[in-house]
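Bumping my old thread because nobody answered last time. Still need a sequence for this structure:
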């Protein structure tokens, strides 16, 4: 979108030239100075001084608000920060399926169904009286543990005074200390006053079996922990109704590793998975930028008597376009921009490429607004001010074309040489 320069006022925006010729009838600027410039101020609280201060404050406020708005729109348009370029995985049943996506993931909608979860092998020992004398005989016992392609020996000393609870706790401790990918827990039934040792492999999949055997003594045989209660198994899932696929883990990689799904429980029905931008985050990011535009417009409302009257028109021309209306951007009762987030999110679901173009393309709506804000930020302060403001009119002269031209007040200047 072409943004025309300011065509009225002091001079066109972006064409400021500090050296301008005076017409003969304008008079020598060094004569009759009081006709063209205000009288020297009587003090810092004189009315013209206060108005000049307001003008300067307004210009500074406009520049700061333009910078803030430009920064907010840069977040929208930049690939590194745009919420549109940060894909996420959203599922219709997050209790059953969750996921994540890399920035390279393509937007898509799929359905998945988990028919079976991947599990690790589980061994369960005998149920024993908690306070009874240890079923494992007193003495030194050595277990041979094999898991994950490695084998280690783990020794435990059982005392004559140990109960079953004490003995199983000792065996559990040496299994954990072996650090071979096995977990061990003593299950206690307080009501029945019984205990049992349970060993589980931390890795899932059919290839992750483990074994526990007695090398010295009878700790494994006596406690029953060599008995397999559940074999290690793979996960099984379907994508878009395709034939089932097995995986050793409940976290699977799809589409060249750009998408990862994790199954938490078996699903009786297909779960819908949307891969793409977080539409809520997209709406929130754009809404934050729109609020900065409203703040910029509010600055002009506050300092309308001092700022150039072309500024709001240029801002409205860039903001309130047909494309902006499609995105859900409209005027509120104050004439400021507001965003209908619900309309934006609905459009993003129906026409995602349209929304992406207006928010991310170099010729889209957001980029055009950002370019205008950059122009505002780069303007000399003098071009932001209204030359017809009472506090500033004393610093102007008329050129032959009846255009207003700034004249610097001559009093207070130190001239070194007039030769």
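Sorry it took so long. Here it is:
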């Amino acid at each position: 979108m072409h943004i025309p320069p300011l065509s009225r006022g002091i001079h066109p925006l972006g064409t400021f030239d500090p050296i301008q010729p005076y017409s003969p009838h304008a008079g020598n600027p060094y004569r009759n100075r009081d006709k063209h410039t205000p009288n020297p101020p009587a003090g810092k609280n004189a009315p013209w001084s206060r108005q000049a201060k307001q003008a300067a404050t307004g210009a500074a406020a406009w520049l700061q608000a333009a910078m803030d708005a430009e920064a907010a729109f840069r977040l929208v348009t930049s690939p590194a920060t745009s919420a549109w370029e940060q894909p996420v995985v959203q599922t219709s049943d997050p209790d059953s399926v969750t996921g994540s996506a890399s920035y390279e993931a393509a937007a898509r909608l799929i359905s998945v169904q988990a028919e079976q979860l991947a599990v690790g092998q589980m061994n369960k020992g005998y149920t024993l009286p908690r306070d009874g004398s240890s079923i494992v005989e007193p003495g030194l016992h050595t277990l041979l543990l094999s898991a994950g392609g490695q084998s280690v020996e783990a020794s435990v000393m059982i005392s004559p005074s140990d109960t079953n609870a004490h003995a199983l706790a000792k065996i559990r401790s040496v299994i954990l200390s072996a650090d071979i990918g096995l977990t061990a827990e003593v299950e206690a039934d307080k009501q029945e006053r019984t205990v049992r040792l349970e060993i589980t492999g931390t890795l899932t999949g059919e290839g992750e079996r483990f074994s526990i055997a007695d090398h010295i003594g009878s700790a494994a045989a006596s406690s029953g922990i060599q008995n397999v209660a559940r074999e290690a198994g793979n996960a099984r899932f379907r994508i878009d109704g395709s034939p089932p696929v097995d995986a050793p883990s409940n976290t699977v990689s799809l589409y060249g590793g750009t998408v990862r799904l994790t199954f938490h429980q078996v699903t009786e029905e297909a779960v819908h998975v949307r891969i793409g931008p977080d539409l809520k985050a997209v709406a929130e990011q754009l809404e934050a930028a729109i609020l900065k535009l409203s703040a910029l417009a509010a600055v002009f409302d506050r300092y309308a008597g001092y700022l150039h009257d072309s500024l709001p028109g240029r801002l409205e021309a860039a903001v309130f376009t047909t494309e902006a209306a499609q995105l859900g951007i409209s005027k509120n009762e104050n004439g400021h921009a507001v965003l209908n987030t619900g309309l934006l999110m609905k459009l993003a679901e129906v026409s995602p490429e349209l929304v992406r173009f207006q928010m991310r393309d170099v010729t889209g709506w957001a980029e055009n607004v950002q370019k205008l804000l950059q122009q505002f930020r780069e303007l000399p302060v003098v071009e932001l001010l209204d030359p017809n403001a009472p506090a500033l009119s004393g610093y102007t002269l008329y050129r032959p074309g009846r255009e207003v031209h700034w004249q610097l007040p001559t009093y207070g200047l130190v001239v070194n040489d007039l030769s």
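The first helix runs from residue 33 to 36. Let me know if any region looks off to you.
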